[in-house]
């Protein structure tokens, strides 16, 4: 039997040369007449090691990385196909501490299977959740998801089971399941990794959601900046349809469910669920006032579940192993696991799925290894561009929705962006306003006008023009945006701004803004 060699086809790996490594590997195997097969798997999420090449051996999979095309001859000479030693060897993949310390439930197969092989998916437990769901009444599925404690991973942390119950009980000629895979938050890539590395888990989760709520059509909404994910999802949907996972009779049952992939142009606000619906219906992505909730009147005015991709991809394991199994992980009201995406100026950037409860400090210093520059960490932004900046003093905050809220922060889509001590927090506050001004849909005044006024105010503080009164004005403006905006784009922009001011006030004083030698040298 051919030896299996795994070279990720994930766009994060391709960006650092995985396609070239795969092509060169194919040539080398042919030239050496070696009996081996290359599988383009998803990424394991250890991005500093990409392209990470793995080979299947009797002992398990052995990893090498990061591999360049120029390394391949040396690797093959050293006995890559037998998993022999080499300076790039990382040993048994499963023993790599970054992976070993994780609890992979949602990402259990990502990077392990051939993403488009249904056989591989089944062999690794795939479709058990859907099979179980088919044998249950819709109310029982909804109850199981509710009892699991799963909360939306898109940002708001709303209980998924309750949302599904609303749609199940709503009256409508046609109900819909919409997967929000827009993934606009800075430093996040979990949705993309699943779509490129284990697309069937999303399809399975959406089919379960359909059966649970009586929806027979689904859409995956993602952006044109994710071409590989679009391609992979389209191919996976086709395979699923050909194998009766989708269609008029899901896995031979009396349930019908089918779905399509829809591509947006890529606007941050189109990740907001009502703007997403507008975009999906063919209009400009502008936020709709709520109520009505999408669960009552969503896509084309019909009852609609809008869930984040990770929320939906977490459902199959809940239906496979039970609500209790999932709920047993986590802390407080944050149950189960969360795929934390560690990015920015960090040594070991990647995806780390863990039960809720690890502290921010553990994630940044221990798992992430501190900054890539080797300088001290000064600030960490959690939860995307609308998330608060946390200083080191708050590193004992556990990763938990309520614990972050208590510190005036949010978890969002669980992206962590790390900054070293050369960061200028006044510039970051300006960036938050600027981002809001660029991305605002324009529907409400506090966000549309407030964000531009915010940039001007920060500029005056920077230039030392009446700094005290301008700081008061900025605080006032933030309150207006927080309480007067229609959606969280304008409403949450105050989080990064005010956390920068609260935790790093020295950067808002006139004169050289911080003590950092790097910054002083640049002034
Ligand atoms: C400006 C803005 C952008 C958003 N972007 C996303 C996004 O990219 N992905 C996402 O799942 N949710 C995003 N959300 C949250 C959605 O509105 C919605 O709460 C979510 O899709 C619901 O799914 P969940 O309950 O599974 O989290 C965004 C919200 C706002 C206000
Ligand atoms: S807060 Fe901003 S993005 Fe949201 S509705 Fe108002 S203008 Fe649009």
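^ structure tokens above, recovered residues below v
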């Amino acid at each position: 039997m051919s030896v299996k060699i795994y070279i990720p086809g994930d766009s994060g790996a391709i960006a650092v040369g995985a396609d070239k490594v795969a092509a060169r590997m194919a040539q080398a195997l042919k030239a050496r007449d070696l009996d081996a097969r290359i599988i383009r798997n998803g990424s394991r999420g250890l991005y500093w090691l990409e392209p990470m090449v793995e080979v299947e051996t009797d002992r398990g999979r052995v990893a090498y990385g990061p591999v360049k095309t120029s390394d391949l001859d040396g690797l093959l000479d050293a006995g890559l196909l037998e998993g022999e030693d080499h300076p790039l060897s990382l040993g048994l993949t499963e023993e790599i501490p970054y992976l070993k310390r994780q609890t992979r439930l949602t990402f259990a197969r990502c990077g392990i299977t051939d993403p488009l092989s249904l056989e591989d998916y089944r062999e690794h437990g795939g479709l058990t959740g859907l099979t179980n769901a088919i044998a249950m009444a819709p109310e029982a599925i909804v109850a199981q998801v509710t009892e699991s404690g799963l909360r939306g991973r898109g940002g708001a942390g709303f209980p998924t089971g309750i949302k599904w119950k609303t749609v199940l009980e709503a009256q409508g000629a046609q109900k819909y399941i919409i997967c929000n895979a827009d993934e606009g938050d800075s430093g996040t890539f979990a949705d993309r990794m699943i779509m490129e590395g284990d697309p069937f888990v999303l399809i399975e989760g959406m089919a379960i959601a359909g059966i649970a709520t009586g929806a027979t059509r689904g859409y995956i909404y993602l952006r044109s900046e994710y071409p590989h994910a679009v391609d992979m999802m389209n191919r996976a949907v086709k395979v699923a349809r050909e194998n009766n996972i989708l269609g008029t009779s899901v896995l031979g049952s009396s349930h019908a469910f089918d779905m399509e992939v829809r591509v947006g142009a890529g606007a941050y606000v189109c990740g907001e669920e009502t703007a997403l619906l507008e975009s999906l219906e063919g209009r400009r992505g502008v936020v709709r006032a709520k109520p009505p909730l999408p669960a009552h009147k969503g896509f084309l005015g019909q009852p609609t579940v809008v869930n984040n991709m990770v929320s939906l991809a977490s459902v199959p394991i809940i239906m496979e192993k039970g609500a209790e199994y999932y709920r047993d992980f986590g802390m407080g009201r944050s149950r189960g696991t969360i795929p934390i995406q560690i990015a920015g100026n960090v040594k070991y950037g990647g995806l780390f799925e863990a039960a809720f409860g690890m502290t921010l400090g553990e994630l940044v210093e221990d798992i992430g290894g501190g900054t890539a520059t080797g300088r001290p960490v000064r600030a960490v932004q959690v939860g995307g561009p609308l998330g608060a900046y946390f200083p080191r003093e708050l590193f004992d905050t556990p990763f938990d929705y309520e614990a972050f809220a208590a510190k005036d922060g949010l978890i969002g889509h669980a992206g962590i962006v790390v900054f070293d001590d050369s960061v200028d927090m006044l510039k970051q506050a300006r960036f938050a306003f600027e981002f809001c001004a660029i991305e605002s849909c324009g529907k409400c005044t506090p966000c549309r006008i407030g964000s531009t006024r915010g940039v001007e105010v920060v500029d005056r503080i920077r230039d030392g023009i009446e700094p005290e009164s301008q700081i008061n004005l900025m605080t006032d403006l933030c309150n207006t945006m927080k309480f007067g905006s229609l959606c969280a784009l304008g409403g949450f922009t105050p989080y990064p701004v005010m956390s920068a001011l609260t935790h790093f006030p020295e950067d808002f004083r006139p004169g050289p803004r911080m003590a950092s030698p790097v910054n002083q040298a640049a002034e």
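Residues 98 and 379 are 23 Å apart (CA to CA).
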